[in-house]
Design goal:
By secondary structure, the chain is an alpha/beta fold. The protein is built from 3 helices and 8 strands; from the N terminus they run E-E-E-E-E-H-E-H-E-H-E. The chain has one domain: Hypothetical Protein Mth938, Chain: A, CATH 3.40.1230.10. The chain is globular and about 35 Å long. This is Mth938-like domain-containing protein. Pfam families: DUF498. InterPro entries: MTH938-like_sf (IPR036748), NDUFAF3/AAMDC (IPR007523).
Length: 125
Amino acid sequence: MKLQPDKFDVPSISGYGPGWVGVGAEKITASVVIGSKGQRLDWPCASFADLTAAHFAQLAGLDAELVIFGSGERLRFPQPAWLQPLIARRIGLETMDTQAACRTYNILAGEGRSVIAALLLEQPG
C-alpha cells in the first residue's frame, strides 16, 4: 500500500526547534504570527518579558476563532488583562509551549478551522 502525506491548503509548520520554526522550506528565527487564512506577520517580541497588551490586541484584529499562543520553550501564561481585546471579540486563546503550539496549529488548520498561531521564538543563549 502506498501512503501519501496529507496536503494542506493552508500555511503549515513544517518543523521546529529551539529558537526557530519552519514554514514550508523557510526557517524563521524571530517571533511570528501564522494564520490558517494565509496571514503571516512579524510579532516584535524577542522574549516573554517583551510581551505587552499591544501584542494581544494585534491578535484580536486578525478575526480568528482561536489563537494558539506558543510561550517559548516552557509554558508561561500572559497576564489576564492583556486578553481583554480577545475576550471582547469572543476569540479563544490556548497557551502552550511553542513546540506544542506548532503541532496543535497544524492539526486545527488542517481541519479547516480559523486559527492563529502566535509563536514566541526566543534565541537559545
